[in-house]
Design brief:
The structure is a single chain. The protein is built from 6 helices and 28 strands. It is α/β, with parallel strands linked by helices. α3 packs parallel to α6. Strands 7-4-6-5-9-8 form a 6-stranded mixed beta sheet, with no helix packed on it. A 6-stranded mixed beta sheet has the order 16-13-17-21-20-18, with helices on both faces. The relative contact order is 0.13. It is elongated, with a radius of gyration of 30 Å. The chain starts with 5 loop residues before the first helix and ends with a strand. Helix content is 18%, strand content 32%.
Length: 403
């Protein structure tokens, strides 16, 4: 069987047209974790006027040499200060307050002694000290948060400061997930057949897709029955943007999924990619919907879901990239196990801003070992031409966080 290269498969995936123009408006406090559908642009400067950044006395810097100044009164935060400072005068001004007209410096409260309406200057400061200038935080017209950004606590805070009551966010793509195979048991299901195995794929992938910003339709498990799988797929595609199945895509007698997909009326984009794990992956399109048939082994299905489902979800959300990829230096030798592009679970260490890779406690074995992805693991990419990589070699690594 001929396999297309990993690079070709990714280029073809990138060329698929997806609907990325769907959005809704939600309340700011309900937008955490959602993806922005529009740029957030500042309408005004922050601050809009010179502002005190500490408690102290607003004054003219040139008056510091006088040694003693008259206090006109207080200027609390939120007060619309209209007094204009004259020579030899100061106003007690608090953190966040508008600086009085005529003042150019704030002398911290601990730098003076107060007595009977006057302050004695005990220690001077540079001109402009403890004063936030107009536009220090951001300037009117500046794009503060770009479209496609996943909203976190900082984005919430900035938008609150802009009085953004409602937020325009991308509609979550709906992803249906199902694990196929008569040998698998769903969560909580009991059996006295020792040949059956516990299904984790549908739960692993559901969590992965939700983390990436999708809405998941959990379909559970389905036995190796052609008609039952066909019926389940038809129902799923009526309600989902993407259908992701695991199992049934290889060349076995009971691998029905690869035959069912064309019968649904879907066009197979490709079947078979030169990657390890997961080379029997199938990607198909039916109008604006997509079908991804992934391998049944837990590690294989998870890796291929990251490589092929996350980019589709990311495009539908309008995100720039589905995951972060970095260059890292091998801390130990690495020997490839196949002629394909390999994705190997690894540990990533950051030292002095540089990424390093090692394989400590990673089990070398089949594509069923999902535990290799525990403990903040990453995926190291070794290309088709790579065979033996010496310690110190730079490799590309997919970070499995902040999808």
């Amino acid at each position: 069987m001929e396999f297309i290269s990993y690079e070709t498969s990714q280029n073809m995936l990138d060329l698929l047209e997806v609907n990325s123009n769907r959005y809704e408006r939600v309340a700011l406090n309900a937008s955490i974790g959602r993806v922005l559908f529009e740029d957030i642009v500042a309408e005004f400067n922050d601050p809009q006027f010179p502002t005190a950044s500490m408690d102290g006395y607003a004054l003219k810097h040139a008056d510091l040499e006088k040694g003693e100044l008259t206090v006109l009164g207080d200027n609390p935060a939120g007060h619309d200060e209209t007094r204009v400072l004259q020579e030899g005068e100061c106003i007690k001004t608090f953190t966040g307050s508008m600086m009085p007209s005529g003042a150019d410096t704030l002398l911290q409260i601990e730098n003076v002694s107060y007595n009977d309406g006057k302050i004695t200057i005990d220690e001077t400061v540079p001109k402009g000290s403890s004063v936030r200038p107009i536009g220090e935080g951001y300037k009117a017209g500046q794009t503060l948060i770009e479209k496609g950004t996943k909203i976190g606590f900082a984005e919430i805070g900035v938008m609150a400061g802009l009085n953004q009551v409602m937020v325009k966010v991308a509609i979550r793509p709906r992803v249906a997930v199902i694990a196929t195979g008569s040998e698998i048991l769903d969560l909580g299901e009991n059996s006295d057949n020792p040949a059956q195995i516990r299904s984790s794929n549908n739960y692993t992938l559901a969590a992965l897709f939700e983390q990436a910003g999708a809405e998941v339709i959990q379909l559970g498990t389905a036995p190796d029955n052609r008609d039952a799988i066909m019926h389940t797929f038809e129902n799923a595609l009526a309600n989902a943007d993407i259908l992701v199945s695991t199992g049934g895509v290889s060349v076995g007698d009971y691998d029905f999924v690869k035959d069912i997909v064309p019968r649904l009326g879907a066009q197979v984009v490709y079947k078979g990619v030169g990657i390890k794990p997961g080379r029997h992956i199938l990607v198909a399109q039916m109008q604006s919907k997509f079908i991804l048939a992934l391998p049944g082994f837990a590690y294989s299905s998870t890796v291929t879901a990251i490589l092929y489902a996350l980019p589709l979800i990311s495009k539908m959300l309008g995100k720039k990239e589905p995951f972060k990829q970095v260059a890292a230096k091998l801390q130990e030798d690495f020997k490839k196990r196949s002629r394909f592009t390999e994705f190997t679970a690894c540990n990533v260490v950051v030292e002095d801003g540089e990424y390093f890779v090692n394989f400590q406690d990673k089990i070398v074995g089949s594509s069923a070992i999902l535990t290799n992805m525990l403990h903040s693991s990453a995926l190291m990419i070794a290309g088709e031409e790579d065979k033996f990589l010496e310690a110190g070699t730079f490799v590309n690594v997919i970070l499995l966080e902040n999808f």
